[in-house]
Amino acid sequence: VPHSTQLALRHPGGVTPILVGPGALADAAGELSTILSGRRLFTVSSERLLDLHGSALGPVEAVAHQAYRLIVPDGEEAKRPEVAARLWSEMARAGAKRDSCLAAFGGGSVGDVSGFVAGAFARGIEWFQLPTTLLAQVDASIGGKTAIDLPEAKNAVGLFHQPALVVCDTALLSTLPARQLRSGLFEVLKVAALFEPELLATVEAKLDRLVGGDAEALSPVVTAAARLKARVVEGDLTDRGERRLLNFGHTLGHALEAALDYRHLTHGEAVGFGMLFALRLAVRRGMDEVEAECVSRLIDRVGLPVLPPLAIETVLSAMARDKKARESGLDWVLPAGLGRGGGATTVPADELAKELEAFLASHCE
Ligand SMILES: NC(=O)c1ccc[n+]([C@@H]2O[C@H](COP(=O)([O-])OP(=O)(O)OC[C@H]3O[C@@H](n4cnc5c(N)ncnc54)[C@H](O)[C@@H]3O)[C@@H](O)[C@H]2O)c1
Ligand SMILES: [Zn+2]
Fold it and tell me: How far, in Å, from the CA of 268 to the mean position of ligand 1?
């Protein structure tokens, strides 16, 4: 009897089922056996993931005609162009064809490079997301955005390629370090604050179990956050409208990540800082102070590190280089109120400098 919850993301190419729950990978075998019958499956993952959870792939690989594993380096290193090029060669050598399938088994890094590789190989082969981090289960695996990094800029080259299936097996999260669980929780808080404040209360009430990787506590939270992400993406597949709201916390977040050379902060932590800052700007534009405080307090409780010393000029210039910056300047996504979405607005340079100065003073060593 399958225990996982099934969600769906409708897009112009069809419908992507999203399975969530402990043991979802085993539950997905039925669905996959129809898709994979007679086809080759290439599973992209890292040594670390395969050591920890390789056995969970058993039911998936068993239904493919032939199963191959392709290894990528751990973490962001997986997104280097040389890695993508090597994967294409390995696939070609193993006889991959237009109807071969690819599966991404790992965090957002593995998902991003895998989707890019699948989207370009033979002008696009079918692929699946089997995300293993909280951040990837609630955010990165949903929506079809893929990317690799250039030495010059992160996520600089990418394409949209919707996966045919997403399987969020929450049992895999039991081995995830607490810091990575916290990191994913910040993306949960992001969609909860914008669209579903009840989810904030759930996170607050179960925080210890969530950070402990408890699958029972995590499953409903992953389900709720994944459903929100899918709903927003469905309404806006190319990132021009409502999907931009998902950039709440990301304007300063991306700049902090870049200013710190992608080393000191996880993506989620950077977004946590970014949301704290955006909430200050939002209050200056009329957001209810008590509501803003409710989100800020929860961000603090999930837990942010102290930032190393950072010059305001470093952060401002990182912002100016952001991929999302346009000629007219940077958009700031500011929440309107709890659960009431938000809007994108520009912020005058003098206000930005003054607020950022105060923000860095209170968060840096
Ligand atoms: N495509 C999108 O829409 C999208 C959205 C958000 C983020 N991203 C991208 O996702 C990446 C970040 O992803 P991430 O936060 O998942 O980090 P990650 O993929 O780098 O993984 C973080 C670490 O967790 C380890 N790990 C993964 N699963 C584990 C498990 N079950 N148990 C123990 N350890 C495990 C990994 O080995 C790695 O060391 C960034 O490159 C970011 O740009 C993409
Ligand atoms: Zn993010």
Answer: 10
Two tokens, residue 322: 């952001």
Q: Which of 154, 25, 143, 135 is closest to 78 using CA atoms? A: 154
Q: What is the mean pLDDT of residues 265-286?
A: 97
| Ligand 1 pocket: which of 133, 172, 173, 266 to mutate (most atoms within 8 A of CB) | 133
How many whole angstroms separate alpha carbon 168 and alpha carbon 226?
9
Q: CA 171, CA 55: separation in Å to the nearest integer?
A: 13
**Mean pLDDT throughout 221-250?**
89
Question: What is the C-alpha to C-alpha distance for residues 273 and 275, in angstroms, rounded to an integer?
Answer: 5
Range 296-303 average pLDDT = 98
Strand pairing of 40-45 and 332-335? unpaired
Q: Which residues does a 6 A CB cutoff place in the pocket of ligand 1?
A: 46, 48-49, 52, 74-76, 79, 106-110, 112, 132-133, 135-136, 139-140, 143, 145, 155, 172-173, 175-176, 180, 183, 267
**For position 208, what pLDDT does the model report?**
97
Q: How many CB atoms lie within 10 A of CB 67?
A: 18
HEC-encoded secondary structure of 300-359: HHHCCCCECCCCHHHHHHHHHCCCCCECCECCEEEECCCCCCEEEECCCHHHHHHHHHHH
**Closest residue to atom 37 of ligand 1, CA basis:** 74
d(CA 183, CA 179): 6
- Tell me the per-residue pLDDT of 324-361, one tens digit each, with 9 for 90 and over: 666 667 889 999 999 999 999 999 999 999 999 999 99
Q: Taking the C-alpha atoms of 76, 247, 225 and 116 in order, what is their torsion angle to the nearest 10 degrees?
A: -40
- Spacing, Cα 183 to ligand 1 middle (Å): 10
Orientation of helix 215-234 relative to helix 197-211, angle to 10°? 140
Q: How confident is the model at residue 186 (pLDDT cuts 50, 70, 90)?
A: very high
Q: Could you tell me the pTM of the whole model? A: 0.96
